[in-house]
Each structure stands twice: as structure tokens, then as C-alpha cells.
Amino acid sequence: MTTLCSFFLLLLLFFFFPTFTASKPVVLPLQTMKISSVKHTTPTSKLLFRYNYSLVVPLKVGTPPQQINMVVDTGSELTWVQCQPSPELRGPIFNPSKSSSYHPLACASDVCANKARDLPSPPICDSKKLCHFAQAYADGSTSEGTIATETVSLGDLTLPSLVIGCTTSSYSSTKDDQTMTGLIGMNRGALSFVSQVGSPRFSYCISDTSSSGVLVIGESDPVWASAALNYTPFVGVSMPLPYFDRVAYSVQLVGVRVAGKVLPLPKTVFVPDHTGAGQTMVDSGTQFTLLLGPVYTALKNEYLQRTRGLLGVYEDKNYIFQGAHDLCYRWSGRVLPALPPVVLMFNGAEMAVTGERLLYKVPDRAGVYCFTFGNSDLVPVEAYIIGHHHQQNMWVEYDIERSRLGFAPARCDLARQRLVRG
């Protein structure tokens, strides 16, 4: 009896969670796309403010396939597509009634009752006894709909019965146009995309131009990296803590260096406390990097000293870019001067932030550039978050099998040309 039950359980898991069986890695073009609003990409466990750009890949969903623009978010779990037409959305939405492979899940299903445990809000039963998800976001927006299984195609690989969300009702705190109509959840939760397909690793390379990146799911050879990848291990906790995201890609930040000088900070400020506050997460769904207050203040003061006489400080004390960046400069030249580099120090690896990645030109304020490190205490969020802006022109590998993150400087434009065309 036990053997028979085990067989049916394995069969059920195979049906709902297809394994990654591609003979070669799946390669997708990665685009940096302007997103005016973050209606669906900023849950309460992340950020309060808006940001301007997201990482987007095209996927085909349903039978026959419908192409949808999907944001790649390593800080989220549930992959979802927008199923309800809205005047706010300019991108293509998914129409489940035109797909023969769309199957909504009952709330009594194993996926809904058990495998959705890592979602920020547990799903509930709707009036039709279907598995209903609802997520609230820190900017006041909401998204909800039905959890279902659907066929998703990535390049030459077709994944039947992938668990996704079909968003049928949403509210946005802003009314800006949208071009993003779906999200790929890539964290380590049970329902994330990479968990479902069973991929041992994935990588991306983000160019500093809008359409020159690449996303690789599976094995990859980062031959466009200028050096061997530096690896730092993922870290976790043995028991649930209120402020520690156990399914995030967490690493250990151990220090910050500015122009060769290590900031004089105690090691304890980088270690999560007894509540889990203070973890360091690598997140492709966040644009800029956030540091907890004591570390940010030390970095800001040191950077002001290093740039004195080089750049003029923007003196509007009431202006805070995106709610977290209160160090801004004035610059009227076409090319920024040589800036002191900032190095993020991890266990076993370092990430250097140099050149134009240090300052961001504010779109609506002429001649104003803001420091791309922000104060997480202003958001507020109880974590260090490494955003995708500081991952530009790097090959970044999420090695789930060996529980580590690898990265090194790379030519992302060349990687895109060779891998996508090849």
C-alpha cells in the first residue's frame, strides 16, 4: 500500500512539476525595458518606491502559443500572466479562453493546499472552488486571480502543466501605461519557475544598453567574462524568522570599500539579527542597491568626501530620488568625471561598482545625478538588496545545485549576439 501511494505521489509531482530535461541550455534575449509603474513587481516584503526599469524576456504561453512580455524577478515566486484587459496596459495580455492547455486548479488540489506555502499570502477558495491568489504591494497596488497549470514555451523547450497565476483583477496606485504583462518568479520557493522546471542553475548578463542582454536557463559557459567567476555561498537560517526571506537568494555582505578604503564598520552590522533583519538579497526585480542605515550613512559620508571639488551637491534637502536616494549631484557635462569606485565585499567574492553605474541621471530634473546606493531605512525594508543596475556588464550565475552565486565582469552585448543567434 505504501509503495502504491508513493508511486501515485511521484506521478502527481511529475504531472505538476516538469523536470528540466533539455539537452542544451535555453537561451532567451533579455531586454531592459522602461516600466513607469511597478503595479505587480513590488510586494510588501520588498520595496515601497517606484523604479524605472525592469528586465524583460518574451515567452510563449498557452496552446496555441501567445507571446507575453515577462519581467525576470529573482525576488518573487509565483509566475503570472495578465489575463484581464486593462486600458493601462499596452503590452499583449494572455487570453485563457483561447488556450486548450489552460487548466485552473481546485482549491483542494495539492498545489493549492501545500505547495503554495512559500507565497507571501496563502491562496484561498473562490466562489467556484478554484485556487485564488491575492497579493498586496507596498505602493498600494494589488493583484489577484486564479492559480492554474499551463503550457509555457522557452525557445525550443516546451513545458507542459507549469503552475502559474492568471491575474484577473488588479488595482494600480498609478495610471501610467504598462508594457509588461507578466512576471517570471525565479526565487527558491516551491512554485517558482526554476523550482518547477528543476534547473540546477541559471545565468543572465545585463548590458548597459536596452536590448543587449541574455538569460540562460541551464548550464552555461561564461566565455565572455573577463575573468573566472567569483563565487560566494548562499546563506540561510535553520528556523523561520519574521524578517528573513527563506526563499530569497541570500548571500553574506561583509564590508564595503571606497577607492581602496574599507569603511570602518563593525562586522555585526552586516549580520542578520535575531529577527532575521539585515539579510543580503540579490534581486533582479529591484533596480538599485539598498543598504541598511548605518552602512549607507558611512558610505554616503565617505563618498561626499571623495567627490568634494569633483561634483557639486544637489542642495534640495526635500528631494529624495525614488524614496531612498538622498545623495544627488549637479553635473552639466556630457560625460561624467572619473568617479571613486565602490566595492561590495562578500564571503569569497567582490563586486566592483564603477563608472556610470555609480550615478543615475534623473529623467525629470535637468543636470541632476543621484547616487545609485540607497538607504533601506527610508523605504523601509529590513534588508540589504543588490539591484540589477549594479549587475550590469556582469555574468551572474545562480548555481542552485551548489548553493552559490557567481559573477564576473563580462561583455553582455557579445554574449547576446553569440548565444541568441547561435
Structure report:
The chain is built from five helices and 28 strands. By secondary structure, it is mainly β. The protein has two domains: 25-198, Beta Barrel (Cathepsin D, subunit A, domain 1), CATH 2.40.70.10; 230-411, Cathepsin D, subunit A, domain 1 (Beta Barrel), CATH 2.40.70. The protein has a six-stranded mixed barrel with strand order 2-3-10-4-9-8. The chain has a four-stranded antiparallel β-sheet with strand order 16-15-21-22, with helices on one face. A four-stranded antiparallel β-sheet has the order 19-20-24-23, with no helix packed on it. Strand 11 and strand 12 form a beta hairpin. The chain is globular and about 65 Å long.
And the CATH topology of the largest domain? Cathepsin D, subunit A, domain 1
Main sheet makeup? 6 strands, mixed, barrel
Shape: globular
Radius of gyration: 22 Å
Strand content: 25-35%
Provide a count of the helices. 5
> Runs with pLDDT <50, length 5+?
1-19, 36-52, 173-177
Question: Spatial order of the strands in the main sheet?
Answer: 2-3-10-4-9-8
Level of helix content? 10-25%
Class inferred from helices and paired strands: mainly beta
Query: Span from first to last CA?
Result: 50 Å
Mean pLDDT: 84
CATH homology group of the largest domain: Acid Proteases
CATH class division of the largest domain: Mainly Beta
In the CATH hierarchy, what is the architecture of the largest domain at level 2? Answer: Beta Barrel
How many distinct beta strands? 28
Q: Please tell me the total number of domains.
A: 2
Oligomer: single chain
